[in-house]
C-alpha cells in the first residue's frame, strides 16, 4: 500500500461494514451530486473474483482465451477488462491514476478502508466494529443512531438516512478540497 496518493481531483472514501447500505446510499447520492453539477467517478473494491461480462458473449470468450486486456466498445459504453492473476490486493494509487483521463470532479472510493484517504464513514448500529468511526482520515460519519464512541470535534455527524444532507456535505467538502488542490497545484507550478 502506498503511503500517500496524489490526484488533481478530490478523492473521498466511503467506508462501512458489509450490510450497512453503501451501495444503496451511493445509488441515491450519485444523482443528487450530479444535480449539483459534479462529475463523479467511483472505484469499488471487490473482495472476491467477479465477472463484468456474461458467459457465452464474444468478449467473455476472448478474455477467457487469453486476450489481455480485453476492450469491448459500443456507441453507448466501453469496458476494459484486465486479468490480474496472482496480484495482491489492488493498488488504490494506480486505480486513481487511471481516473485522471476522465477528469472527474470527485472520485468516490467504496471500500479500501485501510488506505490513507479522507473518509465518509457509514455506520449502522449493530453492524461491525465501531472502531471504524475513529481515525485521522475520518472527515464525516453518517449514523443510524447516536455515535457509540467519542468522535473528534472536526468530524461532521450526519444522519445515515438523509441522503440529501449527505450530498450537501459532500458538495461542500469537494468545494473546500478542490480549492485546496488548485492552490497546491498553483504553488507547485510556481516552484518549477
Report on this model:
It contains four helices and eight strands, in the order βαβαββαββββα. With 192 residues, it is α/β, with parallel strands linked by helices. It has two domains: 11-45 and 91-190, Rossmann fold, CATH 3.40.50.300; 48-89, no CATH class. The strands form two sheets. It has a six-stranded parallel β-sheet, sandwiched between helices. A hairpin with a 4-residue loop joins strand 3 (70-73) and strand 4. Residues 183-192 have low confidence and may be disordered.
Helix and strand topology:
Layout: E1 11-15, H1 22-35, E2 40-44, H2 58-65, E3 70-73, E4 78-81, H3 92-99, E5 106-110, E6 119-123, E7 138-143, E8 156-159, H4 163-191
Parallel strand pairs: 1-5, 1-6, 2-5, 6-7, 7-8
Antiparallel strand pairs: 3-4
Helix pairs in contact: 1-4
The CATH level-2 architecture of the largest domain is identified as 3-Layer(aba) Sandwich
Estimate the global geometry from the Cα principal axes: globular
Number of domains: 2
Number of helices: 4
Q: What name does CATH use for the topology of the largest domain? A: Rossmann fold
| Structural class by secondary-structure content | alpha/beta
Mean pLDDT: 84
How is the biggest beta sheet arranged?
A: 6 strands, parallel
Stretches with pLDDT under 50, minimum 5 residues = 183-192
Helical content stands at 25-40%
Determine Rg (CA atoms, Å): 18 Å
Distance between termini?
A: 29 Å
Widest sheet: strand ordering: 2-5-1-6-7-8
Sketch the topology as an H/E string, one letter per element: EHEHEEHEEEEH
The total of beta strands comes to 8
CATH class of the largest domain: Alpha Beta
Protein name: Molybdopterin-guanine dinucleotide biosynthesis protein B (MobB) domain-containing protein
GO molecular function: GTP binding
InterPro entries: MGD_biosynthesis_adapter, MobB_dom, P-loop_NTPase
Pfam family, one: MobB
Amino acid at each position: 500500500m502506498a503511503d500517500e496518493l496524489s490526484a488533481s481531483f478530490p478523492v473521498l472514501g466511503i467506508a462501512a461494514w458489509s450490510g450497512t447500505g453503501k451501495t444503496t446510499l451511493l445509488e441515491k447520492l450519485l444523482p443528487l451530486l450530479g444535480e449539483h453539477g459534479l462529475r463523479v467517478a467511483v472505484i469499488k473494491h471487490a473482495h472476491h473474483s467477479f465477472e463484468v461480462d456474461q458467459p457465452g458473449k464474444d468478449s467473455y470468450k476472448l478474455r477467457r482465451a487469453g486476450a489481455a486486456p480485453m476492450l469491448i466498445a459500443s456507441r453507448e459504453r466501453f469496458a476494459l477488462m484486465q486479468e490480474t492473476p496472482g496480484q495482491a490486493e489492488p493498488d488504490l494509487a494506480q486505480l486513481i491514476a487511471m481516473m485522471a483521463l476522465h477528469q472527474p470532479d470527485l472520485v468516490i472510493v467504496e471500500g479500501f478502508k485501510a488506505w490513507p484517504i479522507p473518509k465518509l464513514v457509514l455506520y449502522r448500529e449493530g453492524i461491525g466494529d465501531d472502531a471504524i468511526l475513529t481515525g485521522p482520515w475520518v472527515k464525516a460519519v453518517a449514523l443510524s443512531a447516536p455515535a457509540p464512541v467519542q468522535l473528534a470535534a472536526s468530524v461532521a455527524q450526519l444522519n445515515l438516512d438523509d441522503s440529501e444532507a449527505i450530498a450537501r456535505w459532500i458538495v461542500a467538502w469537494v468545494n473546500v478540497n478542490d480549492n485546496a488542490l488548485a492552490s497546491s497545484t498553483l504553488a507547485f507550478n510556481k516552484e518549477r
